[in-house]
Design goal:
With 129 residues, the protein is mostly helical. 76% of the residues lie in helices and 0% in strands. Helix 1 packs across helix 2, helix 1 packs across helix 5 and helix 2 crosses helix 5.
Length: 129
Amino acid sequence: MMKEIYYWTVFYLRKIKTNDMPEFNSFLSVSLMLYFNIATIFILIKYVFNISVKLTHNETTLVGVGSGLLAGYICYLFTYRLKKEIQEKYDNLPLKRRIKGKVIFWIYVILSFSSVFIAGVNLAPTIGN
């Protein structure tokens, strides 16, 4: 799934004439969406299990940077280093499968960005109170 999300991100970024590095920018975009999904899962777990964690500013920064690097490394392993193979595989999909892939891609993008903000605004402030 991550490979197809990467492919469609590259596909749409190539349409931007000023984008001279669509593969790398796609890698960053997919990493960001994965990071948002990880953050959403942590917010939901913290809310559901009523976990109260007290972290200092430095610890919060360390957790954020560490999870961001982890998301980037995962995306590098599964997408960026395999960009040629991914391109060849998904370029040859039948039309119906390409349409299905585009629909799934847009649903994933919208849910990735909106879920972290909705969960963060509505659930995070109530945790620990």
